[in-house]
Structures are given as C-alpha cells and as structure tokens.
Specification:
Elements (H helix, E strand, L loop, with lengths): L1 H31 L7 H4 L3 H7 L7 H21 L6 H23 L9 H23 L16 H15 L8 H6 L1 H4 E2 L4 H21 L2 H21 L5 E2 H19 L2 H21 L29 H17 L4 H19 L10 H25 L5
Parallel strand pairs: 1-2
Length: 400
C-alpha cells in the first residue's frame, strides 16, 4: 500500500514538473511574441529609458488578466514542488522570488525587442500573482484537498496520443498571445461568437472532436474520461475567445454537439471497435474538409517547398500547419491502433496526402505543398518508436 502511494506521489510530481516546464515555455513565448528582436536597442538604453521602466504605471486591465493566466498556475506549480520540510513561509518566499526572478528576466529580454517595453509594474503584478496562487494551493492542501492524476489505462501513457492532445490545444490557442479585447468579449458574449457557417469547417471540427475522443479514450479509464474530455472541449472553446487571431465560430459549437453521441459510443465499445468507429467518421469528414468547397476552377499552383500559416482556424480555406500536423498524425495513430501494419499505413497515407495536395492545387487560393507528406513520414517514425519502446518494456524481466 505504501509502495503504491509512493509511486502515485512520484507520478504526480513528474507530471507537475512537465506542467511547470510547459507553463514557463508559454510565458516566454507570449512575452516575446512576435520575436522581433533588435539587440542594439539594449545598448541604446540610457538613464531616461531605465527611469521609465522603473516608474510605476497603472497596468492595463487586459495585461493584468494576461499575466494572471500564466503566473497563477506558475505559482501553484512551483510551491507544490518545493520540499514540505521548508515550512509554509519559506515555500511562499521561494515562490515569490521565483515569480519575481522569472518576470525580471523576461522584462530584460523585452528590452531587446522592437515593440515591447519593460515595466516594474509587470514584475510586481507577476510576483503577487505567483505568491497568491501559492497561498491558495497551500490553503487547499491544509484543508485536505490534494491534486490527483486522472486514471490512466496504462502505467506509461502513449506519448503520440499526448502529442495529439497538445496539437489540438495549440491549434486553438496559437499564437498564445491574449487578444487585446478578450475581456470585452466576456462582457459582450454575443460579439464573441462568429455566426458565419461553413460546411467544410463543420466537417473538420467534427473529425477533430471525434479523433480527440478516440485519443483520450486510449489514455483514460472510464471514470476519468468524460471529466477530462469536457475540460479539454471547454478549454478549446475558451481559447478561441482568449487568444489573438482566433474566433469562436458557431460551426465549432454545432460540430461539438454533433460529435458527443459518437464520442459516447466510442467510449463504451471495445477497443478495436472504438478505433474503427472513429475511422468511419473521421476519414470522410477530413476528406470533405480538405477539399471543400470543391471549386476547381483555378489555375494549378505547385509551391511544394513553401510552408502554410501556423493555423487557419479550421475555416473553409487551406489548412494551417497545426491542423495538418494534428489530422495527419492522428490518421497515422488511428490506423495503427486499428492494427493495420505500419508500412501499409505509411504507403496509404502518403498516397492520400499527395493526391489531396495535387487536387488542392486547382482550387483558388490554394497550392500543392509537401508539408502533409512530411508530417505523415514523421508521424510514422514517432509511432514506430512508440511501438518499439512498448515492445522493449514488455520484454524486460525484473531481476531477482
């Protein structure tokens, strides 16, 4: 019993470390986006510029909320990783110093960018946010509320499935910069929803939510499945409102509702039947999304070596890089989970990806690119590595 509790504690701590690493990565990304660096700006910083940076300024409301989005989880994660033998006050002081130190480093890095201005106000707000979250986390633990990991189907989760969930969240949140007016959206919810309908986008969203359900079913036991799936769906919809260059569209909301009965059936049937059912819905929906609106009146364009935009928000236009990575990696993973040989999966999806790209070359505003076939090859390599590591772990025999 003690051994099981210790293993659970270690797994929770390992998950916390990973969450903290991703949180810091997103903080740095959001603080330095769009990465327009000019190191000469730091050399030109004089007394007046530093005085301006160290002057207390009334923080903009959207900046405060954006800082809270990152520094509240940062503070809670840091304090949970500090040794309990330190005591509450020492753990709080360490979290305060970590929040202030990271904020100072980020503000100094902003002096090398073109459009960012360092501010002592941000450092104070960020440090206070981190220590506030630490206080709440310690208070919750004092009340007996302890974080728990979701119930996984396997001791070691499938890293390709975890990558697919990360890609799904990323294609909703990219470029991970809070929108200037997202606070206004919450006070004017009717303006936050885009009512324009697209049948092609509906097919893409439907395929995405069904694939997400299959992925989470492979990772989670039934007791944790719906809680985590609902949390992921809500987070996806909120990301459309919170982050820049994103819009919450009625098409995605309707597609989510339509996907729920399918996902429910996927979560209740046997494993192989679940993956076949997901394929039955995802394959035609993705094909429809890729080729909609089926207008082949343009002159063919073949830009094989160009990159698509980071995300196209699953609209009726050409898919973005994150959408391509999510759907084609998901297709490789899903076909392999349905027990098809990896070589056959690679050949079939490479052929499909190339045919779709060639057909898209005749659609106005689109062109044929190599990124989809490249993603198929990379996804097949990842699945092969996963299969080999899984086989090796099964062959390991504990020593006496």
């Amino acid at each position: 019993m003690t051994t099981r509790g210790y293993a659970s504690e270690r797994a929770l701590r390992r998950a916390t470390v990973w969450l903290l690493a991703f949180t810091v990565l997103f903080m740095v990304y959001a603080s330095l986006y769009p990465f327009d660096f000019n190191p000469g700006r730091l050399a030109s910083f004089g007394r007046e510029e530093w005085r301006h940076a160290l002057t207390w300024r009334r923080p903009v409301r959207s900046d405060i909320i954006a800082n809270l989005i990152f520094y509240l989880p940062f503070g809670a994660l840091v304090v949970s990783l500090t040794p309990r033998r330190w005591g509450a006050w020492r753990r709080l002081l360490f979290t305060l110093g970590a929040g202030a130190g990271l904020s100072v480093l980020i503000e100094l890095a902003q002096t090398t960018t073109v459009n960012r201005d360092p501010s002592i106000t941000d450092v104070v707000v960020n440090a206070v946010s981190a220590v506030t979250a630490a206080l709440l986390a310690l208070g919750a633990r004092g009340l007996g509320l302890k974080p728990t990991l979701p119930e996984l189907r396997a001791h070691r989760p499938d890293f390709v499935a975890v990558l697919l969930i990360a890609l799904w969240i990323s294609m909703h949140a990219a470029p991970f910069m809070p929108a200037p007016r997202f606070v206004w959206y919450f006070s004017n919810p009717s303006r936050a929803l885009d009512w324009e309908w697209s049948t092609g986008a509906f097919a893409g969203f439907l395929a995405g939510y069904v694939l997400l359900g299959a992925v989470m079913r492979s990772l989670l036991r039934p007791a944790s499945f719906w809680k985590l799936y609902a949390a992921c769906a809500v987070l996806s919809l909120l990301a459309r409102i919170i982050f820049r260059d994103q819009r919450l569209v009625i098409t995605e909301c309707v597609a989510l509702l339509f996907s729920l009965p399918i996902v429910w059936q996927i979560s209740h049937v046997r494993e192989q039947a679940a993956y076949r059912l997901a394929l039955l819905w995802c394959a035609p929906a993705f094909m429809f999304y890729s080729l909609a609106p089926f207008d082949f009146s343009g002159a063919p364009e073949f830009d094989w070596l160009t990159l698509p935009p980071l995300t196209a928000r699953l609209n009726a236009g050409e898919p973005g890089l994150l959408e391509i990575a999510f759907f084609y990696t998901g297709a490789v993973w899903l076909l392999r989970e349905a027990r098809l040989p990896l070589g056959r999966v690679l050949f079939g999806l490479l052929t499909t990806a190339l045919l779709i790209e060639v057909v898209q070359a005749w659609e106005p505003g689109r062109s044929a690119k190599l990124i989809a076939p490249i993603v198929v090859v990379l996804a097949a390599v990842l699945v092969w590595v996963r299969d080999r590591s899984s086989l090796t772990s099964r062959q390991v025999v504990p020593s006496d």
